[in-house]
């Protein structure tokens, strides 16, 4: 065999590999222990206690002294972090709308971190962009959006998905706003959501310049759904007052009541007034993966203009992974958000049609679709369906 002429690892490089090996072993033990009900969900400590534990058993939390910590202290810090963090994969963890991360998803997240890729251009992230498009295609098919008209992105959380929806809808209705600003609209733009909708709708209104008073909350019925009749009444009143309604944010699974808005009824109102209809499925959108629950809870979702859902909730992808899609034609995200930074985006590059970086409000973008894709490939449609149906029935 030919002689191996590659240089031996330096002591520093060997230490780095040792740390990685030992932390991986910690993580394996941690994940394997999650079903042990003898562990508490959290070893709750005060900020002062946590700082003291780190100082005594690992290394100071403070970076004030600027000195490097040795390998053993770094490893002790990792152990302390696992010991003092909330065990979100514990069978008794019910505090938030997340839970145990899928093991294959964790493997995918680890691989993404190791490659340190950024999903803006094909030349930098070829596999990750191809995988992302396959996850989008699957989402289009599940929602009922046409692949010839739909676009989508993974974004950092459902709140950002709702921001993308509002931003895209505003550009679609008032395209001059991109270059001339909100005053080009020539009146007060107004958007609407349910009184039970996620607060990210209001935050999105702050970011895009509407103001919180112009994300109007429509009252709910006894089941927690937005009342379409009161939406129609309010839109009529706002038009009479000279305002410019343009967006309705529906919800598939409200945070407190778990309500699913009547998408078909809201679609009728939106069609009457020419409004964009977005469905925030961050929490409940995973029922798309169950034919039984999709029909009961998301009838008419294929008529929405945009839709989002979070695989990091019911499907179990590691945080964060949110999918935003719209069905208003290819090129809309580029037109809405693009600035054509030529140092990154050149049309004459190989496979530039796969570049998504200029569709976004970001530059660097984590390839979040990969962990969802990897878990999906392992479980298959039926495995994902069973997971969603089990979660839905356990919470009913």
Report on the architecture of this protein:
This is Glutamate decarboxylase 2. The chain has 13 helices and seven strands. With 396 residues, it is of the alpha/beta class. It has two domains: 11-95, no CATH class; 112-394, Type I PLP-dependent aspartate aminotransferase-like (Major domain) (Aspartate Aminotransferase, domain 2, 3-Layer(aba) Sandwich). Helix 2 (47-57) runs antiparallel to helix 3 and helix 5 packs parallel to helix 13. The mean pLDDT is 93.
Short description:
Pfam families: Pyridoxal_deC. This protein folds into two domains: 11-95, no CATH class; 112-394, Type I PLP-dependent aspartate aminotransferase-like (Major domain) (Aspartate Aminotransferase, domain 2), CATH 3.40.640. The protein is 43% helix and 10% strand.
Which short descriptors sum up this protein?
396 residues; alpha/beta; Aspartate Aminotransferase, domain 2; 2 domains; 7-stranded mixed beta sheet; 13 helices; 10% strand
């Amino acid at each position: 065999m030919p002689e191996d002429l590659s240089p031996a690892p330096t002591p520093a490089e060997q230490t780095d590999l040792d740390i990685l090996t030992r932390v991986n072993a910690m993580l394996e033990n941690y994940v394997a222990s999650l079903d042990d009900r003898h562990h508490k969900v959290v070893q709750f400590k005060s900020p002062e206690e946590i700082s003291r534990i780190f100082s005594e058993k690992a290394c100071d939390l403070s970076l004030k002294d600027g000195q490097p910590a040795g390998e053993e202290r770094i490893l002790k810090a990792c152990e302390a972090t696992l010991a003092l963090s909330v065990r979100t994969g514990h069978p008794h963890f019910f505090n938030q709308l997340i839970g145990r991360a899928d093991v294959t998803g964790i493997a995918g997240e680890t691989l993404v971190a190791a490659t340190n890729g950024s999903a803006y251009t094909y030349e930098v992230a070829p596999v990750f962009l191809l995988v992302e498009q396959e996850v989008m295609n699957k989402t289009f098919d599940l929602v009922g959006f046409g692949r010839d008209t739909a676009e989508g992105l993974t974004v950092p959380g459902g709140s950002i998905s709702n921001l993308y929806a509002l931003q895209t809808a505003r550009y679609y209705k008032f395209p001059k706003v991109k270059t001339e600003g909100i005053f080009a609209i020539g009146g007060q733009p107004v958007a609407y959501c349910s009184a039970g909708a996620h607060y990210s709708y209001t935050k999105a209104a702050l970011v895009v310049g509407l103001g919180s008073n112009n994300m109007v909350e429509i009252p709910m019925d006894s089941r927690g759904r937005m009342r379409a009749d009161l939406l129609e009444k309010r839109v009529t009143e706002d038009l009479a007052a000279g305002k410019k309604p343009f967006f309705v944010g529906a919800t598939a699974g409200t945070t407190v009541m778990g309500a699913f808005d009547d998408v078909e009824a809201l679609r009728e109102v939106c069609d009457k007034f020419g409004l964009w209809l977005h469905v925030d499925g961050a929490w409940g959108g995973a029922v798309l993966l169950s034919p039984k629950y999709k029909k009961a809870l998301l009838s008419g979702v294929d008529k929405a203009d945009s839709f989002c859902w979070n695989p990091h909730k019911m499907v179990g992808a590691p945080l964060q992974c949110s999918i935003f899609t719209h069905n208003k034609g290819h090129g809309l995200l580029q037109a809405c958000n693009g600035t054509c930074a030529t140092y990154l985006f050149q049309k004459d590059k190989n496979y530039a049609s796969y570049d998504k970086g200029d569709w976004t409000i970001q530059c660097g973008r984590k390839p979040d679709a990969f962990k969802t894709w990897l878990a999906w490939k392992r479980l298959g449609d039926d495995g994902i369906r069973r997971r969603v149906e089990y979660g839905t029935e356990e919470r009913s």
